[in-house]
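Subgroup meeting minutes
Present: P.N., E.W., G.H.
Scribe: E.W.

1. P.N. recapped why we're keeping a running log of single-chain structure predictions: easier to compare across weeks, and new members can see raw inputs and outputs side by side.
2. G.H. added today's entry (217 aa).
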Amino acid sequence: MSPSDQAARSGAVLVPSAHVGTLSVTGPDRLTWLQGIVTCDVSEVLPGTGTWGLVLTRQGKILSDVRVVADDDAVRLGVPEAAMGRTREYLASFLIMEDADLTDDSAALAWLSLHGPRAVEVAVKIAARMRAAHGAIDVTGLGGAALVLPRSEEAAARQIAVAEGAVAASDDDWVRLRVERLVPVYGVDMDDQRSPHDVSLERRVVSWSKGCYLGQE
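Output recorded in log:
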């Protein structure tokens, strides 16, 4: 077992997130508006929490998956670069009377992902030392967390993660882990021709208890 495989099971592994952009939702209605858009329940997403969901077309196909993390005045959506343009345009089309704004902050903000039972612990320590929003987001079933921070502080955050015992994974390490743990990637394993059921996400990123959202039917 490689060091990264071991870390994912007993510690924390830091994986590349270079191809993730950021959409920021601000304004008083940001959570209630987003609740009617994404498949996951964001009604109680507060600073220090997070979730994983999908943006669906009206026909229920996957336009993008999204990581959702909040800070004090915004909700940050981690969107795959391959889906960013269409997702941004699609979401903006549903901002009509809500007191909310949607901004592409991809140039300013970077994402870091941690996986393993110590992922949240390491994320909290990074966030305590720099300007970073963070939340527990477990996509592998082994534990996980995501951080959103200024791109200028990304290298320092990686150094802190490693100093706290996280193992930096290579691209190949992450591919091996995500395939083993059945974590689909947009543009590789899923696209706008597939539904959540097609990629076995209907029980992982879809809330079956919240109200209506786009593409639900």
